[in-house]
Amino acid sequence: MLKHFLAAALLCTASLPAHAEDFTAADWNKVLEEARGQTVYFNAWGGAQNINAYIGWAAGELRDRYGVTLKQVKLDDTAHAVATVLAEKTAGRDEGGSVDLIWINGENFAAMKERGLLLSPGWAQDLPNWRYVDHENKPTITTDFTIPVEGLASPWGMAQLAFFYDGARMDAAKLPRTADELLAWAEANPGRFSYPQPPDFTGTSFLKQVLLEKVTDRSVLDRPVEDDVFAEVTKPLFDYLDTLHKVAWRSGRAFPQNYPAMKQLLADGELDIIFAFNPSEASSAIANGELPDTVRSFTFPGGTLANTHFVAIPYNANAKAGALVTANFLLSPQAQARKQDPAFWGDPTVLSMEKLDPAARAGFEAIDLGIATLKPEELGPALGEPHPSWMERIEEEWNRRYTAEN
Amino acid sequence: MLMLTRLGPALVILLLTGPIAFGLAGTVLPAFGFLPVLGGMELTLRHFRDLFSEPAIFTSASLSLTMGLATAFISLLTVMLFIAGYAGTRAIGRVQHLVSPLLSLPHAAAAFGLAFLIAPSGMLARLISPELTGWQRPPDLLIVNDPMGLAMMAGLIVKEIPFLLLMTLAALPQAPLPQTRMLAASLGYGRMAGFLLGLWPVIYRQIRLPVFAVIAFASSVVDVGIILGPTRPAPLAVRLVEWMDDPDLSMRNLASAGALLQLGVTGLALALWLGLERLGAALCTRMAMHGWRFRRDALIRAAALAAMVLAAAIVLAGLCSLLLWSFAGLWQFPDALPSSFTLRTWMRTLPSILEPLRMTLLAGLLSTLIASLLAILCLMNEDETRRRPGRGALTLLYLPLLIPQVAFVFGLQLFLVYAGMLATLPALVLAHLVFVMPYAYLSLKDPWYAFDRRYDQIAAGLGKGRARRFFSIRLPVMLRAVLTTAAVGFAVSVGLYLPTVLVGAGRLTTVTSEAVALASGGNARVIGAYAFWQMFLPAAGFAVATFMPTLIFRRFRGMQV
Amino acid sequence: MKEKGLFLDGVKITLGGRTLIELSRHVRPGGVLTVMGPSGSGKSSLLAYLAGFLDPVFTASGRALVDGIEITRLPPEERHAGILFQDPLLFPHMSVAGNLIFALPESLKGRSERRAQAEAALEGVGLDGMGTRDPATLSGGQKARVALARVLLSEPRMLLLDEPFSKLDMDLRQQMRMLVFDKAHERGLPVLLVTHDEADAEAAGGETVRIGE
């Protein structure tokens, strides 16, 4: 399929193999050649310093190895990048777009796919490093929020909701094991729990977690939301929130803006339980001196929300070849291992250990996941994401109910 | 040269009115549904209906309105009482020295400082805990981001007080201070009452436009709102920027309609202020008619001085705690100091701060250079024609400071998208220029007028042409003033948030846009490092402006301050 | 009118329809014309008119010629009108020598030659060896003499004096008067003196025109 891409999108290189039905190394060399000297504007959420630093590291590697200049456009909401591409498409700017690569999943991916804003046909499976990807055992790599990925985005990392607490202040035996227990705990400890204000993705993930636990029939969430059932399906969620807000941090009159803000609040002792969409966040925060080393993780035995995050290339990207090279590099065992290391980021890999050669596997095994990180088998079942339309409606409803106090 | 000076005013008018006019058009049209980029061609009031059905939109609007009025009122009141109590004394000079550096500090940095000072886990709470409060953990109090916007108001006030103070001090020489003071004293009026009844009206007339600028700014500010402002709901301008960013592009129409509402809110705030002016004038007249003397004003005087010092102290203390955070290892509540110090934050942020730093310098220096040149050209043209700009021209100059930024930067962004200029350096410099230009002109104007023109006439008599006279006499003699102008312009550029975010579109970032983007993460260490650069850059500019002339002309006493 | 000296040919300066000055005179080389009048009488506007800096609020007609050249048609820097104000107005960012060297015509080339001329001029006003001094460190009388030396170095065609002695002490004032008028005479420069001090007019010795009375 790479040939389609090359033929359709790759600038002016006319001398392509005529029968490249199968992916060949020669095609990839063409891409590498094309990519040399390109500048890739990588639109990625920029709210976490360790992630920014990781991207900075990747930029250095890409420059040294492939002559590709990677520049991170730090977003506070990935929706900005979607808006930019959409604006460019509407303005007829079908080439030379300003976004080359987007860190994406969920509603943003769904929106871009639906509006034809992504480079197609699918290209992710044609990347040389795809052969290491664990798509067989990790269904969220091929189905993102119930939407088939179809190679329109390349997996970058795995995420699962995990909770953190400070062992110096809390008794590990009394940790909540379900959303309901969490609410009971919050009522017993007023002011010590909160969640980031939607539309922040960590905040909406919490809403989805509660919804998944409280809904009677989860299958309804796999389908696009229907008006007549929305109120009924989400009523338990909003009842839950109404109760929670009364006993939440600042009595629910204000919310942390995102996960890093919650992390700071845990460090300051304002919050007692926080959560992230990355199980090793606590360990990397300890490694960075942002959290005390008494912080530990826990999860709900019934399972927590999980998904995969991707990188995608807009259809009008200016540096398509450079973006492909970047996506491929981000999938490389070396880049993935560094990403999984809490000393740098601590984001679980999308690769399959079985598919790696022994040296690469040893690299992963050598990583110290940190004292606060649960082992993969301790993480509990992964709960799939609802269809993105649910989240959009829930955000709207959240805004309607809680934008103003009272 | 003659041609060039004629060009000056024309260019300035073009540079100021062009972006504003196009920007406003680009905001107004989409508000009524006309946005060809998105295929909207019909004229409709739908977006206003949508706007007014947004949850709590009127709460947001009234927040903005009160923010504008209350900030201006409290800042002006403080400055007025302080000046009334201390004009002509040495306290003025001391406070001026204390407060002047704050003027160059970006609003966002001051807001960060305040936030880290007053938050429940902030510096103040740490200093008094647990000894005085018994708090082992931060209290669950909503101080920063409070729904009334008090924290935000405080953040604005501590920044506007220096601004209004320096504006007032600039106007002070035009008032016959000693005479009026003696007259009032001989009639038995208290020091402050005599000043307020006799001199304040004259001074106020001079600082009216700056006061209006404060109202307009405070009623439409975005960055301070993000850092300190209420979140449920946020002030109007903050919400508008969120809508502008929404992936659903039809929200742009809503944002544009909202920008018009913002224009109305700011307009209403100004109109209400005009009413307050009348009320104040009437009150003064009545007091004068009654002949109240207010001789015992020592308490008010002390309070005014305390308020001035407090405003400066808050910002300085806030900045110190930010700096402390940037070097902090683990720093748990209620420790007053970090348990360890480390350079880690600086090492980690350095690579990612280089690019914003470069862009800050580039955009700042270029826009400052152009603005200073244009200001000089305009002033030379005034010399040429011997005409000082009238009220109209001055208002035009203040236009970018009186119109809410969102109201025209939205539209400007749209035009730049059309022109394929979005996120380019020229566009960013142009956007900064719109805001740097007024300050550059206003700060150069008085020293320029103060230059003894007989120097120029003597040099002409010595047979020197215009260019030679300018470069050999006027420019060197005025070097300090020109560099100070540049430093002012540079400081303005460094502090610009909204124009940078909208025109830079996330690809051209400055330390200020980056710092505000990081604000949401609440990472005190990183914010501290960014805030350091925010305060360092303008301060460095002023240091150059102060020390370079001193150094160059160290042999000449007549060139020292 | 092709003769040497300064010709004021039907010079008339009005302000808002009011005539301030109406004058035709010939000042021969080395001669002095004194214009006297109270402040606000517009006597300084005559000076500004000749130097080329008349404020546009005034209306001027007529013409002025120096050595047969109609200077009123020239830009200020080509009129070579040496001006002395009541303040010495030494350029504060240049040394004493710097002030003098700046005044030398550009046609005079060579650093050492220019420097030597400046030194000579200083000697001429009795300030030998003061070239490296900061003007701000000079006494009032010294400053006035440097100002005179400066204006003479620029090879002026005439001297325009705007109450140049009024800020000096009594005894200095007399010395400066002598010095200025001697130098003007020596060089054959026509002088226009604007003053309200009778003693100035007396010392000048030429014709006195009174205006605004």
Find the biggest chain interface. Answer: A-B, 61 and 59 residues
How helix-rich are the residues of chain B, as a percent range?
over 70%
CATH superfamily of one domain in chain C: P-loop containing nucleotide triphosphate hydrolases
CATH class of the largest domain in chain B: Mainly Alpha
What integer value in Å does the Rg of chain C equal?
17 Å
- Dominant shape of chain B: globular
Would you kindly provide a written description of the structure presented here, covering whatever features stand out?
Chain A has 406 residues and is α/β, with parallel strands linked by helices. Chain A contains 14 helices and eleven strands. Chain A has two domains: 2-158 and 309-369, Periplasmic binding protein-like II (D-Maltodextrin-Binding Protein, domain 2, 3-Layer(aba) Sandwich), CATH 3.40.190; 162-306 and 381-402, Periplasmic binding protein-like II (D-Maltodextrin-Binding Protein, domain 2), CATH 3.40.190. Helices cover 40% and strands 13% of the residues of chain A. In chain A, the strands form three sheets. In chain A, strands 1, 2, 3, 6, 10 and 11 form a six-stranded mixed sheet that branches. A three-stranded antiparallel sheet of chain A has the order 8-7-9, with helices on one face. The radius of gyration of chain A is 22 Å and the shape is globular. Chain B has 24 helices and no strands. With 561 residues, chain B is an all-alpha fold. Chain B folds into two domains: 1-33 and 344-561, MetI-like (MetI-like fold), CATH 1.10.3720; 66-325, MetI-like (MetI-like fold). Chain C has 213 residues and is an alpha/beta fold. Chain C has a domain at 6-90 and 154-210: 3-Layer(aba) Sandwich (Rossmann fold). Chain C is built from six helices and nine strands; from the N terminus they run E-E-E-H-E-E-E-H-H-H-E-H-E-H-E. Chain C has helices at 43-51, 96-103, 111-124, 140-153, 170-187, 198-204; strands spanning 6-15, 18-27, 32-36, 58-66, 69-70, 81-84, 158-162, 191-195, 207-210. In chain C, the strands form two sheets. Chain C has a five-stranded parallel sheet, sandwiched between helices. Chain C has a four-stranded antiparallel sheet with strand order 2-1-4-5, covered by helices on one side. In chain C, strand 7, helix 5 and strand 8 (191-195) form a beta-alpha-beta unit. Chain C is globular and about 50 Å long. Chains in contact: A-B, B-C. Chain C: Keywords: ATP-binding, Nucleotide-binding, Transport. Chain C: It comes from Chelativorans sp. (strain BNC1).
